[in-house]
Amino acid sequence: xxxxxxVTAEILSNRPIAKGIMELKLLAPExxxxxxxxxxxxxxxxxSSLLLPRPISICDADxxxxxxxxxxxxKGTAWFADCCVGQELxxxxxxGNGFDVSVVREGDTALLIGxxxxxxxxxxLGKVLKEKGVKLNVAIGFRDEPFLEEEFRALGANVVVAxxxxxxxxxxxxxxxxxDAGMDCEHWFTCGPKIxxxxxxxxxxxxxxxxxxxxxxxxxxxxGACVGCVVDVLERGAEAPVRKKVCKDGPxxxxxxxxxxxx
Length: 263
What we know:
The chain is α/β, with parallel strands linked by helices.
């Protein structure tokens, strides 16, 4: 396994793709070439008052370029939003355990369900699954303004879009849109808010599936040292849940094993 480290990346583009949502492309060969679906990188600001890095899911990657999509929600991401083309950023090599694509075979069907910014890591996953000859069904949900729809369609995926406001696509959740469209597939993958993951996991189990869920717990260090992103996981055969670190043990877990609190 490659040692994790911090590298210098050059900004190739940094542009808004929806209200409060930015797409950042980085020239970072060492990080990009190692990226697997569902992993994330730590991105560091150049502001000494913002000590902790910001963990951002890998949306896409090729041999040299990382594509990250982030919501501008605080001082750190606002700092990133002001960065310009040609500027350099410090980023980690890929972190965490991503989606397990070894369980999927050519000719299988896969359902990808994303909620908001949680739709982003599903794009890299979709590309890998397409290369394996998998038929893709994608349901992505947003509050009001969708993004990445065309990128998923470019993969030949059957795509449905849902919005809370009903302004675009299905009026409701991504899960409801997927089920109304008859998207019950052999393999389920999902990323988004915890409450969404809970219902996706329950629906998958009710249909005899076990969804792979990518958790979005708030991370501090991103390396497993601060224990600020733990979730309860009920491992097979165990009598009680154990605490797992999303940044190091995840972010991807089996939906049947995550102990979702009542919310």
